[in-house]
Structures are given as structure tokens and as C-alpha cells.
Design goal:
The chain is α+β, with helices and mostly antiparallel strands. The chain has nine helices and 22 strands. The protein binds the ligand Nc1nc2c(c(=O)[nH]1)N[C@H]1C(S)=C(S)[C@@H](COP(=O)(O)O)O[C@H]1N2 and molybdenum atom. The site of molybdenum atom has 6 residues, from loops.
Length: 432
């Protein structure tokens, strides 16, 4: 059944029920009547004018909630203007689906809106957790097959981490923040550290790398440095307080904090300790045989994006607004975020909203009194190891390439984005 027509039916049914409930509760009705008088001359609506209909919620809604039917924000396929992994991709599949960052609050995304990327497009493995296993073998002393129940018997960790696809690369052609930066999301992940499992099976000295493999027909498989496994990689089964969602790799996935998205293997079924880098299906040019080099290039640099006001939004009137957005780094926690409202001539320290966790998004904000002029607004992250988010021109100069509006820097593009507040309050891409 169409969920919309169902909720409309429930609404009508609920209206009748609400009338009955008010009539039955005499004390309640009297109390309400008093507040139905408008304050004379105040211009405020009467209570009755401000009243909302009561709607009935059915058992399913009570059992597992849903959002208000007034809230319609959605993930959409990443367009990315002809970039190789745009949707549809070179195989005709919808690979990457972007999260609506323009509508997000706080530092995490709702699980239902976390961006998602799946090489097989709409097809994902449908895994029965009771039957699923994770095998760890290769250069280990005691190879072992773990059930989901086995994994949950180890000490757990819960940590905030972002995931960001390497193709989350903005240019002057992006109309809004969902298109320019929607391939990153942040969540609280729960699971067991991979180092705990590796200690359990005993890693041999020569095992400098490990390969993680997903359960699909074309297996998502990546090679990563053993040093990263021992530092902070998680074998995660929980997300934002509940089991992983199918799109996020149910029942178990890898979280590789700060590494680009593709390494965060979903539907994880096999980890192999190896002595050399393995070239797998997932490599898309990530080949780097040096352990140190791999550790450097896989990690996302300090980055930030203003989500309000951003492309496609509008400031209705002159006056005060909070400029707000998200900041992160793939190598440390965020130390500070600065915001400029004059195209980078002057910078103001923004407030971080809550704790900045390592390799996690943190919300920032700063108040701005818009007096109707044109403004190029920018944000810039400095992380806890002192790295500063670079400007686009700065990076182009370092690479010795010209900056055209469509230029998307190679690799993990962590350059500064600009939004333009126009004189009429409309907001557009400031790189154009
Ligand atoms: N098994 C498997 N793991 C995978 C993928 C995949 O297609 N299969 N996609 C990768 C890519 S390209 C990205 S960007 C991240 C996205 O994680 P998310 O869908 O939870 O956002 O998962 C990675 N892990
Ligand atoms: Mo990706």
C-alpha cells in the first residue's frame, strides 16, 4: 500500500478519535478553553488558530518510529557532473547516493540518511546474521571463524567516525551541498577492535598487510596496512544505537577511521593477514606498495563545509543568522574552525558544538549579521596535528595546474568551498 494514502487515512481516523477524547476529558477541555482567548492587540494567533489536529499512530509506528510526514529530506544519487563515479556510473549502476547535508543537525547523520555506496548498484547481500561468519586467516597462528555471537563476546567500543568517499569532490558546477559534499556522513559505530581479534588469532611477524573482503558476488576487497589494523580499525555491528542498516553492511562491516570510503568494507566475511600488498577488484588506482605511502594517501585531510547558508537556500530578511557546517580530518580530531564572510580576507573563530572526536565530523557555528550585501562565505579547518585545510588556488599552484570552474582536484579533495550570498539573499556556488 502507498504509505502516503495510509497516513492520510490514519489522520482522518485519528481526527475522529481526538474529538471523542476531548469530549470525555471535561477537566482537560476547561483548561484548554481558557487559553483559546487571544491576547488583545498582540497580533498573536488565538490558541484555536494555532491548534493542530490530533492524529492516531498505529501499532507499527509505535513499535518502530518514523519521521513527521512534513519532513521530506532524502538521499539522492550523486550527480558529480560527469565524474567517473557519478550515477549512473560507467557500468550503468547507481553506485553512490548522497546524504542531504543541507538538512542535517548536530554532528551525526540519521542512519536512514547516511550516504551509501555500493558497487553493485541497487543490489546488496541479504545476510541472515544467525548464519553469517567472519573468517580470519592467512599469516596468523590460529585461523578462526567467528559467528556474530562470537564477535559480541569480545569487549566492545563505541566511537564516532565519519566515512567519506574519495569521489566527494566539489567544483564550481555543484548547485547545492548534497551534490558538492554529500558523500560523507558521521555516525556512532559499535563493534570490536580489529586489533582485539588479531591478538586472539595471533598475527605473524611478516604480516604487514591485511585484506578485507565483503560478501558480494563482486567482492569489495581492499588491502590495508597492518599498522592501521592495530591502531583503530573497528569490526562494527552497531550504528547509532541499533544494528547496522543493510545499506551500511548489515550485519558487520569494517570501519577504517579517516581512510577513504572504499576501505570501509561492508558485509564483511573474510580478513586475511598477508605479507604483500594484494591487487584486488576494489583497487581503482589505490595501489601503493609502501606501507608508509599507503598510510599517507589513504587518509582524508582536514576538511569542512558550510551547510547553512548553502547553495539553493535563501536568507529571507536582513539580520542575524548562524552560519553552520561540519568539519573533520582523517588524521586527527578537529582543533579549530574559522569562518570568513569576505572571501578569506578576514577569519573568525567558530564555536565547535560539542566534543571534536578523532576522525569524526564536528558541527561548528558562528553568528553573522547579514545586511543585504554580497558575501563569499568560507570555512577552514585546522586539525589537532596542525594541518590546515588548503584553498583551491593554493592547491592548484602547488600542483602547477590552472584552476578552471570545473576543476576537481585529484585524490581526496579537501580544499575550501565557497558559497555566495547574493544581494537578494539567494545562495549559489561561490567557486563559479
Ligand atoms: N563490500 C562492500 N564494501 C564497500 C562498498 C561496496 O560496494 N561493497 N563500497 C565502498 C565505498 S566505495 C564506500 S564510499 C563506502 C561507503 O560506505 P556507506 O555505504 O556505509 O556510506 O563503503 C565501501 N565499502
Ligand atoms: Mo566510494
Amino acid at each position: 500500500m502507498d504509505p502516503k494514502s495510509k497516513s492520510r487515512r490514519e489522520l482522518l481516523k485519528g481526527g475522529a478519535a481526538a474529538v471523542g477524547a476531548v469530549a470525555a476529558g471535561a477537566v482537560g477541555t476547561a483548561a484548554l478553553a481558557q487559553t483559546k482567548v487571544a491576547v488583545a492587540g498582540s497580533g498573536l494567533p488565538t490558541y484555536a488558530e494555532n491548534e493542530a489536529p490530533m492524529i492516531a499512530t498505529d501499532d507499527d509506528l509505535v513499535a518502530y518510529g518514523t519521521r513527521s510526514h512534513y519532513v521530506t529530506s532524502k538521499r539522492v544519487p550523486a550527480i558529480m557532473n560527469g565524474y567517473s563515479r557519478s550515477s549512473p556510473d560507467e557500468f550503468g549502476l547507481t553506485f553512490h547516493i548522497a546524504t542531504p547535508l543541507q538538512d542535517s543537525y548536530g554532528s551525526i547523520q540519521a542512519s536512514s540518511l547516511h550516504y551509501t555506496a555500493t558497487t553493485k548498484g541497487a543490489f546488496i547481500p541479504d545476510i541472515d546474521p544467525a548464519k553469517h561468519t567472519l573468517m580470519i586467516n592467512g599469516l596468523v597462528d590460529k585461523p578462526r571463524v567467528f559467528t556474530m555471537a562470537d564477535l559480541k563476546r569480545f569487549p566492545s567500543v563505541s566511537r564516532f567516525h565519519f566515512i567519506e568517499c574519495n569521489s566527494n569532490s566539489h567544483s564550481a558546477t555543484d548547485k547545492n551541498v548534497q551534490s558538492s559534499h554529500g558523500l560523507t556522513s558521521n555516525a556512532e559505530w559499535t563493534g570490536v577492535l580489529l586489533s582485539t581479534l588479531f591478538k586472539e588469532v595471533g598475527v605473524k611477524k611478516e604480516a604487514n598487510w591485511f585484506v578485507a573482503e565483503g560478501a558480494e558476488e563482486i567482492k569489495g576487497a581492499s588491502t590495508m596496512p597492518m599498522s592501521k589494523a592495530m591502531a583503530d580499525v573497528m569490526v562494527a555491528y552497531g550504528m547509532n544505537g541499533e544494528p547496522l542498516r543493510p545499506q551500511q553492511g548489515f550485519p558487520v562491516r569494517l570501519i577504517v577511521p579517516g581512510f577513504e570510503g572504499i576501505f570501509n568494507t561492508k558485509w564483511l566475511r573474510h580478513i586475511k593477514a598477508v605479507d604483500q600488498y594484494q591487487l584486488n577488484m576494489d583497487d581503482y588506482g589505490h595501489l601503493n606498495r609502501s606501507t608508509l605511502g599507503a598510510a599517507m594517501i589513504y587518509q582524508i585531510g582536514p576538511k569542512s563545509i558550510i551547510t547553512f547558508p548553502s547553495g539553493g537556500q535563501k536568507l529571507p530578511d536582513k539580520g542575524w543568522y548562524e552560519i553552520t557546517g561540519l568539519a573533520w580530518s582523517g588524521q586527527a580530531a578537529v582543533k579549530k574552525v574559522e569562518v570568513s564572510t569576505d572571501n578569506g580576507k578576514t577569519w573568525k573563530l567558530a564555536e565547535l558544538k560539542g566534543t571534536a572526536h578523532p576522525m569524526a565530523h564536528v558541527r561548528f557555528g558562528t553568528m553573522f549579521n547579514w545586511q543585504g550585501g554580497e558575501h563569499l562565505i568560507l570555512s577552514r579547518t585546522t586539525d589537532a596535528i596542525g594541518q590546515v585545510q588548503p584553498g583551491r588556488d593554493e592547491l592548484a599552484k602547488a600542483l602547477g595546474v590552472p584552476v578552471t570552474p570545473a576543476w576537481r582536484p585529484p585524490g581526496n579533495n579537501n580544499t575550501i568551498m565557497k558559497w555566495k550570498i547574493n544581494a537578494d539573499g539567494s545562495v549559489t556556488n561561490g567557486l563559479a
